Every structure is written in C-alpha cells, then in structure tokens.
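Below is a complete specimen:
___
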Amino acid sequence: NAPAAEVGDYAEPVKFTLVFTPTAPSVTPPCEAIRGMTACRGIMSTIPISEVSDPRLVGSMTAVADQYQWPTQPWWETNTFRISNDDGAWQGSFIGVREGGRPLGGASVVLVGERAYEGLYALMDMSDYPSVNGIIFGAPPPDAPVLPPSAGS
C-alpha cells in the first residue's frame, strides 16, 4: 500500500496517475433503435492499466457501458468500472457525454474501495482518457447540499 500520513480518523489524500490501454470490447451486444436513437447496452471491455503511480490501482479494469446515440454527435454514456487486484478492488459508475469517442466536459468517477481498500475512495478524472489523474481519499465524498424551498422561486 502507498504511504499516507494519518489525519484524525482518515488518511491524507494521495494523488495518483495511470494510463489505460484501450482495447476492443470483449462483449458487444446488439443495439436497438428507440425513439430516434440507437441504444447499445452492456458493452464490456477488459482494459489493462499501465504507468500506475499508486500500487493500489495496479491491475486491469473491467468496464461495462451503455451508449445512447443519436444520428449526430454527442451521445450519452453510462459506465461502471471495476479495478481489481490480489489485495482488493475499486468500483464505481458515472454518467457522461461523449463526442467523437472522447468525454465532453468533465468526466469524473468515484470508485469505492473493497477488501484491503475498504474505507477508501478513488476519484478518477477521465477527461484526458486514456491518461487519468486522480486522488485517493480516506473519507467518502460529502453529500450534496439540499436547496432551500425558496431556491429557484
């Protein structure tokens, strides 16, 4: 495990970088036309990870994606990622927009640690995919604030 300074009950955040090696999907189910768009659900890939700066993220990533494409760009995409190795695993999902095969705008995902990584959360910024920058936190992301009833009036 990467060293981390303890602060209270949580470890100090640790920045990381990694590079994915894009591969062709191992499962490409048939797509279907729905109300003017094409829905491709359950596209699965196993994506090797290289140039990892934190050993807790060494391994490969299994990705499952659903894509909702219109005849023109951009399109919606939902993804679930799982990075696993002998010590544990990380898993998380996100909804994003792609244009020309690349994320459009911010594309961040929070992965939740399992087994040896229990209690850790890895935020991955996917906007420069296949290169990824991120931070491992020893605390869960905060809840979003609630708008007061008078907001938007």
About this structure: The first strand starts at residue 6 and ends at 7. DSSP finds no helices and twelve strands in the chain. Residues 1-8 have pLDDT under 50 and may be disordered. The two ends are 50 Å apart (CA to CA).
